Amino acid sequence: MPKAIVTIGFFLTLCAGTVAAGEMWITNEKDHTVSVIDTTTQELKATYNVGLRPRGITFSKDFSELYICASDDDRIDVLDPDTGLVIRRLASGEDPEQFALHPNNQHLYIANEEDALATVLDVTTGEAIAEIDVGIEPEGMAVSPDGKIAIVTSETTNMVHWIDTAAQQLFANTLVGQRPRHGEFTHDGTRLWVSSEIGGTVAIIDVATQKITHEFTMTIPGITQDLIQPVGIRLTRDGTKAFIALGPANHVAVVDAQTYEVQDFVLVGRRVWHLEFDADEQHIYSTNGISGDVTIIDVGSLKPLKTIKVGRFPWGAAFRPD
Predict the structure, then answer these.
(1) Residues 294, 28: contact at Cβ < 8 Å?
(2) How many C-beta atoms surround the C-beta of residue 213 within 10 A?
(3) The sheet that has 149-154: what strands, in order across it?
(4) Which of 100, 106, 214 is nearest to 163 (CA)?
(5) How far apart are CA 57 and CA 55, in angstroms?
(6) Can you name the residues that pair with 162 across neighbouring β-strands?
(7) Which of 24, 56, 152, 162 has its CA 20 to 30 A from that of 102?
(8) For every residue of 215-283, which 3-state class applies, written as one string?
(9) 292: left (phi over 0), alpha (psi -120 to 50) or beta
(10) Residue 5 and residue 28 in contact, taking contact as beta carbons nearer than 8 Å
(11) Which residues on adjacent β-strands are paired with residue 205?
């Protein structure tokens, strides 16, 4: 049975304008839980138990099911987000870390970190329909908007591996910076952004050629370069901005997505991992692992509005609109 922790508070208006109604779901690695934040009140509303060491998290396309990588249980937990109950468990292969749901709402592409594999799972039958050999310690996973390509980043091999989703086979590899953690397709599917944590770089890759067209680093005054470790990336739908989580630098970078110039750095909690927008991109939420909280950033002003305590070592985030 799930354990629900309900926080009751009064609403505080943090900025002008209508706040997007919905819920932000957060995985907490050390507590083996997911926390739920009401995005209207910007308060913690519930916490539910899940499998061991939850990390990757995503909703089905109709938001009726929530998929969670229970990494230390080697499975995917499927939750009913209305009740917080785990309604089924799917064998995922060893140590699932990140995953991506195909636009067909049926195939889940999973990075199996310990096995150097990408598993393709049918979420309706629970069957693994393919296991694809990739580089050592795969982590980042993404599927192109048209569903034709999946990519996985391998942390130790320092590569992006390109998968033809019709054939379920690799067709290309791209060498990137040291320890790539996350890949994010632009909304038009023409480019792929890849963060390399230890290399401190972000690469922009042409999807048609699988070649790097641009690569950049970032500098924050007063912070040593070795602490600026790019991890999670989110791109606005209009293609104008990129938000990049910078790990132990405790900042989120805001980058012009056309010129690749850094516009600003936003101070958040300690060891920021991943990011997620609310429904209309008014706000972006950062998961701050070591400080055990989530920071809400106003996208218009690029100011942090509020920090919310969640569980221990928050990692992933997924938004469900009302």
Answers:
(1) no
(2) 11
(3) 138-143, 149-154, 159-164, 169-175
(4) 100
(5) 6
(6) 151, 172
(7) 24
(8) EECCCCCCCCHHHCCCCCEEECCCCCEEEEECECCCEEEEEECCCCCEEEEEECCCCEEEEEECCCCCE
(9) left
(10) no
(11) 192, 212
Q: Under a CB-based contact definition with an 8 Å cutoff, are residues 39 and 71 in contact? A: no
Closest CA to 65 of 106, 97, 17, 32: 106
Q: How many CA atoms lie within 13 A of 65 on its CB side?
A: 17
The closest of 298, 274, 294 to 184, measured between CA atoms, is 274
Residue 247 DSSP symbol: B
Q: Which helix (H) or strand (E) holds 314?
A: strand 314-321
pLDDT in tens, 144-183: 999 999 999 999 999 999 999 999 999 999 999 999 999 9
Q: Per the structure block, which two tokens stand in for 50? A: 């899940």
Question: What tokens were used for 91?
Answer: 């064998």
Distance CA 240, CA 24 (A): 23
The token pair at 42 is 């910007």
CA nearest neighbour of 59 among 100, 5, 4: 100
Residues 6+ apart with CB under 8 A from 74: 91, 92, 93, 94, 95, 96
Q: Locate tokens 């996985």: which residue? A: 152
Residues pairing with 143 in the sheet: 150
Query: 151 near 135, Cβ under 8 Å?
Result: no
SS3 label, residue 86: strand
Closest among 66, 212, 179 to 113, alpha carbons compared: 179
In single-letter form, the type of residue at position 1 comes to M
The pLDDT value recorded for residue 20 is 66
CB 79 within 8 A of CB 86: yes
**pLDDT band at 2, cuts 50/70/90?**
very low
Q: What is the pLDDT of residues 87-115, one digit of tens each?
A: 999 999 999 999 999 999 999 999 999 99
